[in-house]
Specification:
335 residues, Arc Repressor Mutant, subunit A, 7-stranded antiparallel sheet, 5-stranded mixed sheet
Length: 335
């Protein structure tokens, strides 16, 4: 069953449980825990308020029903969000799931986001004050995307969103945050250092991608780069039933030759080479994070033939999906 609630009502569930059960506690002066235990599901939110304009939110939640959260326009502080388990559909229609993260800042448009039921959700969000982030990047105006630069300087009100894969280096930092061995002021210093480390790794990706785009724009043009990235997001959002190459090109306002050249320039692969890799990664995550069988996963990522899926998975990862699904070494994080 799917339940639709507003963002305010969603927050009320936490607040009501806090008052009713008195489950908010000051463990340290900078740490708070909110409990979520009601007819929708169970879980908690752990909050750390640190120096340097930093805060960390750890969300652990398991829902009984799918929740559609109705969101009204709101302004995001710079947020670095890391999804470690579960699946969530964002306002723009893309999915945020295990192994993925995003960096967002600015006003978000109204819409809905969906939280999936029956799969434990675990995510870590890092917030930082805009002026603090801006002070770190003040000497790099020419090296960061113009829309991000304008937001940090307060000269524009566009929404900036940058998604990516969570690397092994990021996973290590997240594991250290979730398993911090310290208390008190030492905990605070430790968590600040790990939060800043994650932000620095993530910003390096933003800077590197922007530099690559600038270099690529000399070859295919800045407007075409935006269209190529739009095409990539269309493939990601419709990977189970993707558009044909002519249809994809038409959707983003390019011809097929421009689309092919653009994908090569931006991602060093073809459009459907990218789609294949993305499908395989989604299949791996489904086998890792859910109880779905191999046949369900194959159909779930868009394969009509189980043998074709098995052959593709084995070629990509060097192991057949059925063996991968039963191995005890699938999860490398948070066992």
């Amino acid at each position: 069953m799917t339940i639709t609630i507003s963002s305010n009502n969603w927050e009320d569930f936490w607040q009501e449980e806090q008052q009713k059960l008195n489950n908010t506690s000051c463990l340290n002066n900078h740490e708070h825990i909110l409990s979520f235990s009601n007819q929708l599901g169970k879980g908690y939110q752990q909050q750390f308020f640190l120096h340097s304009g930093l805060s960390i939110y750890i969300h652990k939640l398991e829902l009984i029903d799918n929740i559609v959260e109705s969101i009204h326009s709101q302004k995001f502080l710079p947020e670095f969000a890391f999804h470690l388990n579960g699946k969530r559909k964002l306002v723009d229609g893309s999915y945020h799931q295990a192994g993925e993260n995003f960096f967002a800042i600015g006003p978000c448009l109204s819409g809905t986001q969906e939280w999936s039921a029956n799969t434990p959700t675990l995510k870590v969000d890092i917030h930082i004050e805009p002026n603090i982030l801006g002070s770190y990047l003040c000497d790099y105006h020419q090296k960061i995307p113009s829309e991000l630069n304008q937001l940090l300087q307060g000269t524009d009100e566009k929404f900036y969103f940058h998604s990516g894969k969570t690397t092994a280096q990021m996973q290590l930092c997240l594991h250290q945050i979730l398993n911090c061995p310290y208390q008190g002021i030492i905990q605070r210093i430790y968590l600040e250092s790990k939060a800043l480390e994650l932000i620095s790794i993530r910003l390096q990706e933003v800077l590197s991608e922007h530099e690559s785009r600038c270099s690529t724009s000399k070859v295919i043009g800045a407007n075409d780069i935006e269209r190529i990235h739009h095409a990539r997001e269309i493939l990601r959002c419709n990977f189970e039933n993707p558009p044909s190459l002519p249809e994809l090109a038409r959707k983003v306002g390019l011809n097929q030759r421009q689309l092919k050249q653009g994908f090569r320039a931006c991602f060093d692969t073809t459009a459907f080479g990218y789609l294949h890799d993305y499908r395989m990664e989604q299949a791996r995550l489904l086998l890792t994070e859910t109880q779905m069988g191999v046949t369900q996963v194959a159909y779930g990522v868009g394969y009509a033939s189980l043998p074709s899926f098995s052959a593709a998975f084995r070629k990509k990862f060097g192991i057949c999906p059925r063996t991968y699904a039963t191995t005890k070494e699938k999860k490398v994080l948070l066992e």
